[in-house]
């Protein structure tokens, strides 16, 4: 065990091996076995043997002289060098194996990424093909009276167990949304109120300039409205299942969009383009394009919702939009293809969406619900990041201020203003059964449509928001349904439960005062 001649030798009766007594006894007490053979061994198994007393330990011959010592040192050095060389070879081999493993891992990651991309593209193509597959003849026949010869709203409805594929919001789209957000945020810091903006005194002198009967008399009522400021064109959605494109300066109806089978709950222009979006209680969203002669044709009929669609809102890139429905989901669409990229439901609670609007910077989506809750979503992750409680009754309308700090929400109990920086309600306006709330594009004024129309001057969180003007609801129904500010707040457009679009502005403003006789019949 020690490599030396034993001073007190003992022999194992089992293996016949010779040991130093003190060493083997210590080993047996620690391990209970032979250090050489590994067999069980006890103190009783070792027998001492007698030897003659050696006074001097014999010296090895090769260490008895200096040349012998030098030879021993040389042998040990050679052994050390050989051992070091072997270790270096093992290290080199291990490095090569590690490099090869890393290369294989990198190649596998690239292959996986390529396969995922091909899978997403295949899903997108499959979804587009499914969307454009014509319906069965009997389905078309059943729905023909509702569509006036166009593709009916229910043609693409699928069974309860069938789900349309949504490829998701890709990394490229998220990068595009983020870049748009950064550009708009930077631009907003340098934003100045336009000199042509109507003054507070001007709004205080607003009165009705004109009234235009745009919708049918058998189903009167304007549900929604939007204004294309660059062309001063107004779009209205009615209870008569049509949307009307109206040129305000000339007082002429440019086009009537027919195709929905129930009331048009929301209408939106897409930037300065020739596209218009409409949502309807018939569970569909339609994308309309100007065919060039002033007439609009339906480019896409989207059937991704199973209940009434209450709102559409366009992203700042003008490439994507969101629809919100009473089926407890909101959908994120690619505008050019009409493809639903994501269909989002809140797993934490069931809510029915009644209003929706993008934040001016585009990375936040606000939604109102019939359960009186306002939810704020992160568009990139489709996660609910905040919620505002406090309303009573259905949230009918929401609007973000241009500065990006304030959110206005309307419900049965009135209008509330929320500070998005501190996520709290800082002011409330008691307007019973408020149907619509809208900031003007500059963020200087706020309009509320209820039993009358109220115009406020915006301010900070702590400052007072002054009431500028209260405009009466001249429809006789006692219910104004929507309000929008015209370019530079030079006029206010109001929709009510009758079929007329009313324009309020400064008396004598020739541009705003359209000739009522030139309005088209319903």
TrEMBL record:
Presence of keyword Ribosomal protein: no
Residues of the U-box domain: 1-66
GO molecular function: ubiquitin protein ligase activity
Catalysed conversion reaction: S-ubiquitinyl-[E2 ubiquitin-conjugating enzyme]-L-cysteine + [acceptor protein]-L-lysine = [E2 ubiquitin-conjugating enzyme]-L-cysteine + N(6)-ubiquitinyl-[acceptor protein]-L-lysine
Main location: nucleus
Pathway: Protein modification; protein ubiquitination
Keyword DNA damage: yes
UniProt GO cellular component terms: Prp19 complex; spliceosomal complex
Stored Pfam families: Prp19 (PF08606), WD40_Prp19 (PF24814)
Gene3D superfamilies, A to Z: YVTN repeat-like/Quinoprotein amine dehydrogenase, Zinc/RING finger domain, C3HC4 (zinc finger)
WD repeat boundaries on the chain: 257-288, 302-343, 354-387, 388-428
Cellular location(s): Nucleus
The organism's place on the tree of life at top rank: Eukaryota
InterPro entries: Prp19 (IPR038959), Prp19_cc (IPR013915), RING-Ubox_PRP19 (IPR055340), Ubox_domain (IPR003613), WD40/YVTN_repeat-like_dom_sf (IPR015943), WD40_repeat_dom_sf (IPR036322), WD40_rpt (IPR001680), Znf_RING/FYVE/PHD (IPR013083)
Sorted UniProt keywords: DNA damage, DNA repair, Immunity, Innate immunity, mRNA processing, mRNA splicing, Nucleus, Repeat, Spliceosome, Transferase, Ubl conjugation pathway, WD repeat
Region (Disordered): 138-160
CDD domains: RING-Ubox_PRP19, WD40
EC number: 2.3.2.27
GO biological process assignments: defense response to bacterium; DNA repair; innate immune response; mRNA splicing, via spliceosome; protein K63-linked ubiquitination
PANTHER family from the UniProt entry: PRE-MRNA-PROCESSING FACTOR 19
Function statement: Ubiquitin-protein ligase which is mainly involved pre-mRNA splicing and DNA repair. Required for pre-mRNA splicing as component of the spliceosome. Probable ubiquitin-protein ligase which is mainly involved pre-mRNA splicing and DNA repair. Component of the MAC complex that probably regulates defense responses through transcriptional control and thereby is essential for plant innate immunity.
Family: Belongs to the WD repeat PRP19 family.
Subunit: Homotetramer. Component of the multiprotein assembly MOS4-associated complex (MAC) at least composed of MOS4, CDC5, PRL1 and PRP19 which is related to the PRP19C/Prp19 complex/NTC/Nineteen complex identified in other organisms. Associated with the spliceosome.
Protein name from the UniProt record: Pre-mRNA-processing factor 19
Classification lineage: Eukaryota, Viridiplantae, Streptophyta, Embryophyta, Tracheophyta
